[in-house]
Amino acid sequence: MLQKYLISFFLIVAIVFAHRGGPPFLKGASREAVKEFFKIQNNKTAKISEIESQTSAWAEKYNVTATYKAAEAKRVEFETGARKNVTTVIANLPTVKTQLEAIFDNKDQTFAQQRQAVDALRTKYPKEVVTLFHLSGPPPPPPRGGRGGRRGGRRH
């Protein structure tokens, strides 16, 4: 379950960062080309394979195939790296958890020494320590205010 959550998180991050300012193959494209591209991407009923083939055909139609393929290769490379990183973090979690528990169970140290030990572990395993602290912390508070929410978080 945790692995699926982390993979989903990294993929969402990849999508968000990949589309800041739009994909590179849309730069300099006509308004019609951009509109057609987003129509393909926002098709809620099409399967992923259909969207991919339609986007590839779109790239050929607007002569941006090379830039499109380069962007796709970069996306695939990022996803592969993200999956590898997630696998590594998940594999390290039991070891880091055991080490953190040993640090916090050691009563023959000062709080400063405890903090130094945690910082040393965080230096060696930054993602793992942050992940374990996140998982062991309290749940985040519910959203407040905003569109459709209660203003100021007050209950009526």
Automatic annotation (TrEMBL):
Keyword field: Signal
Biased composition (Basic residues): 147-156
Superkingdom assignment: Eukaryota
Sequence segments annotated as region (Disordered): 133-156
Residues in the signal sequence: 1-18
UniProt domain SXP/RAL-2 family protein Ani s 5-like cation-binding: residue ranges: 32-136
InterPro entries, per the entry: ANIS5_cation-bd, SXP/RAL-2_related
Name of the protein this chain belongs to: SXP/RAL-2 family protein Ani s 5-like cation-binding domain-containing protein
Record organism: Caenorhabditis angaria
